[in-house]
Amino acid sequence: MRPYAEYLQYVNSLIQQSPFKGTPGNLYEPLNYILALGGKRMRPVLTLMGCELFGGNMEDAAQQALAIEVFHNFTLMHDDIMDNAPIRRGQPAVHVKWNEPTAILSGDLMMIKSMDLIRNAAPDKQKPLLDIFNKTACEVCEGQQMDMDFEVENKVNEELYIEMIRLKTAVLLGCSLQAGAIVAGATADAQKAIYSFGEQMGVGFQLMDDILDVYGQSDKVGKQVGGDIISNKKTYLLIKALELAEGENCELLHYWLNEDDFAPEEKVKAVTAVYNNLGVKEIAAAKSEAYFTLAYRLLDTIDIPAENKQYLHEFCEMIRTRIH
Amino acid sequence: MRPYAEYLQYVNSLIQQSPFKGTPGNLYEPLNYILALGGKRMRPVLTLMGCELFGGNMEDAAQQALAIEVFHNFTLMHDDIMDNAPIRRGQPAVHVKWNEPTAILSGDLMMIKSMDLIRNAAPDKQKPLLDIFNKTACEVCEGQQMDMDFEVENKVNEELYIEMIRLKTAVLLGCSLQAGAIVAGATADAQKAIYSFGEQMGVGFQLMDDILDVYGQSDKVGKQVGGDIISNKKTYLLIKALELAEGENCELLHYWLNEDDFAPEEKVKAVTAVYNNLGVKEIAAAKSEAYFTLAYRLLDTIDIPAENKQYLHEFCEMIRTRIH
User: Fold this and answer.
1) Which of A318, B27, B216, B313 is least surrounded, with the fewest CB atoms within 10 Å of its CB?
2) Which pLDDT belongs to residue A226?
3) How many Cβ pairs closer than 8 A exist between chain A and B?
4) Dihedrals phi, psi of B122, to nearest 5 degrees
């Protein structure tokens, strides 16, 4: 196995070397545009790692890694329309740079192309790959719909929230690892364990993401600081705060949730102060930590060299301790 | 083989008996809603016919027929958003009945589910089925983008237009037939011929559709009469009219194309009068006829019982002579 940077470089070279080609240009250009915006490439890196973890070579899983990154970017392209998000990684989102119909249609094409890439696998690997890939793709849609439903739903509790982020984010991390493991010929038990490892890590990762939206240096990556607070997004922090707040904290929280006319910085500052009073950052961090611990325990059950496990530990440390 | 009505009944019973189930309801309900709106079910019927044409039983191709109808309805769900069309088969479109984000996401799910249905085939049939299905799915996206590009493109000629309708409409009819043929175990040559038959028939069909939008009794199916004229849609009739119009006809045509403030019925009446003066209905009908003739010739090359071919002839006659 190799350090993260090496996998990342390989993913980026794959994307650069195999741009989508076709006509009309208005349909195909957005695919290459969004893929070129960069990012951490966590999912394709996990696919390559999943393959080498079980003794394969990363080159064997290249097409599956690409497929999963293409799929992920399809979801981003459509999510940005649904969420009315004008900026993606510091650049105009596709529906802003082109228009909404093009973002819908290019996203559709991207979804189809991701299935085509998966199918570049050896014949005997195609069925298990498509099984987990299609199942995951449906779940990601379910998670996104839950997330949208939460916007107008008042009774969102911790359990529902965890299920939402499991579907929207975590299962694709599990699928990424399992796709690599399938290519490498891992046993069914090992596949199941590495999938669950990715899934638990994914929940831990998303909880960290909720914390970073408020407490991170997110201005560095082109995202609005406190964006979740401004839009009343039902994150783990808000759900916990609503559960715990009493007296003045409760009044303040509801005041800001219901106030339509506000200066964004003022709202972010005020709601963050309530979060601080209630200690929800620490509660969320402990919850995230618990999911990472569970993930590590699952990793322990897999019969692979300790050295390989170490690379996954480092991967987890990287996403746990990032500041944006 | 059987008459159209029998295939149609079977398709409708398949759709009724296997509704999509899952949560959240807001994600899954639109799939069943749009599928229940009905329609001619041309594509799944062609899949069943394609199977029985080559000696198979329609039940064997049921999942593939369903897959193609689900795929087709995914494209309708997304097209209605892109085209800003509020009505689908006389009922509110999904983006109107629910909202746009839900129509995007339910469409995405429908696309994924169509791939899953295709994969219910016997293992040795899956690769050829997915090959033609994925290729066609990409082409349908290309056709839709061309159609959207045409809205702002002045230089649309006959050749480009035919290519657009080939991609947007015709290839899926070819794919529908070929999918049935694959299930029945038809030879590669026969598959190719039946695909081409469907493709040429599809171009002929779409040209008829252009004529019917102006001259048909389209009020019967909940579509706006003359909708293409009202929206300046670059149909075969308009492209031909722009090519042929001189003097007063040319002036009238450009007047109505550029006039923003008009009574819909008046515009439809005036542009139809220009079409009548130029005889573009007859030119389009002859062109459509030529594609059907080509389709019949392709059908003649296939080594199947004449009785089976007769069912396809009847299918063509039905779509050629419909009045809405």
Assistant:
1) A318
2) 87
3) 105
4) -60, 145
Mean pLDDT of B143-157: 92
Interface test with B, best of A73, A138, A145 (most B CBs within 10 A): A145
Tokens in use for A93? 């989102």
Q: Compare CB distances from B149 to A24, A134, A142 and report the shortest one's residue.
A: A24
Percent of chain A with pLDDT over 70: 97
Query: Residue B277 corresponds to which tokens in the numbers above?
Result: 């003066």
pLDDT tens figures, A31-50: 999 999 989 999 999 999 99
CA–CA distance, A204 with B298 (Å, rounded to integer): 59
Per-residue pLDDT, B141: 98
Residue B99: closest CA among chain A residues belongs to which residue?
A: A82
Write the ipTM: 0.95
Architecture of the A4-321 domain: Orthogonal Bundle (1.10)
Please list the alpha-helical segments (H only) found in A119-187. Answer: 123-152, 158-165, 171-184
Q: What is the pLDDT of residue B145?
A: 97
Residues paired with A87 in a beta bridge: A92
Chain-centre distance for alpha carbon A175: 12
Instruction: With beta carbons under 8 A apart, name residues in chain A contacting B85.
Output: none
User: Which chain B residues have a beta carbon less than 8 Å from that of A138?
Assistant: 22, 109, 112-113, 116
